[in-house]
C-alpha cells in the first residue's frame, strides 16, 4: 500500500489518512459499545436470577432447608426464617433493607433501566456501523485511483 499511496497527491494522502483514522476511531468506539452490551446482558441475567430467587423464597414455607452460597462452588445448609426484609443494593455501594415485594419492584425497575441502556448502545453501535460503511466507498475510491484503475 505504501507504493500506491505515493502515487496520490498530498491532499489525497492526507484525506485517506484522516478517513482511516476516523474509521479506526469508530471501530474502537464500536468495540467499547459491544463490551458495554455484553456487560449489560450479564447484569440483566443476574437481576433476573435475583428476582426469581426472591419470588421462589417468598413462596417457600418457614423452616424449609435451603443451601446458601458462600463462594462460587461452596454452600452451607440453612433453614428459611420469615422473609420480611431483604437487603438490596441501591447503587454506589449502598444497600438497604426493603420488603420482598419492594425489592422485586426495585429490581424490575433496574432491569428496565439496563434494557434501555442496552437498546441505546445497540442503536449507537448501528449508527457507528453506518458511519463506517459510509466512509468505505471514499477510501476505496482513493485506493483505486492510487492503483491506477
Protein traits:
single chain; 149 residues; Helix Hairpins; two-stranded antiparallel ribbon; 4 strands; rod-shaped
In short:
This protein has helices spanning 2-6, 10-59, 100-147; strands spanning 65-71, 74-79, 85-91, 94-99. It is an alpha+beta fold and 149 residues long. 5% of the residues are buried.
> CATH first level: which class?
Mainly Alpha
Radius of gyration from CA coordinates: 26 Å
CATH topology: Helix Hairpins
Write down how many β-strands occur, each being a DSSP E stretch of 2 or more residues.
4
- Please work out how many helical segments DSSP would assign: 3
For the largest sheet, list the strands in their spatial order.
1-2
Strand content: 15-25%
Based on the coordinates given, report the CATH architecture: Orthogonal Bundle
| Beginning-to-end CA distance, first to last residue | 14 Å
* Unreliable residue stretches: none
Structural class: alpha+beta
Topology pattern, helix = H, strand = E: HHEEEEH
Shape: rod-shaped
Count the domains: 1
**How would you characterize the largest beta sheet?**
2 strands, antiparallel
User: What is the residue-averaged pLDDT?
Assistant: 92
- Which percent bin holds the helix content? 55-70%
Amino acid at each position: 500500500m505504501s507504493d500506491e499511496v505515493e502515487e496520490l497527491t498530498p491532499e489525497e494522502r492526507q484525506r485517506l489518512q484522516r478517513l482511516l483514522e476516523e474509521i479506526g476511531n469508530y471501530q474502537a468506539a464500536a468495540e467499547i459499545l459491544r463490551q458495554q452490551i455484553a456487560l449489560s446482558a450479564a447484569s440483566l441475567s443476574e437481576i433476573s436470577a435475583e428476582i426469581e430467587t426472591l419470588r421462589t423464597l417468598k413462596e417457600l414455607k418457614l423452616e424449609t432447608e435451603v443451601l446458601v452460597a458462600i463462594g462460587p462452588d461452596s454452600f452451607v445448609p440453612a433453614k428459611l426464617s420469615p422473609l420480611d426484609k431483604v437487603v438490596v443494593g441501591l447503587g454506589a455501594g449502598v444497600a438497604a433493607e426493603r420488603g420482598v415485594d419492594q425489592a422485586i419492584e426495585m429490581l424490575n425497575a433496574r432491569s428496565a433501566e439496563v434494557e434501555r441502556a442496552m437498546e441505546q448502545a445497540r442503536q449507537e453501535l448501528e449508527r457507528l456501523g453506518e458511519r463506517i460503511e459510509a466512509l468505505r466507498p471514499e477510501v476505496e475510491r482513493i485506493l483505486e485511483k492510487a492503483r491506477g484503475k
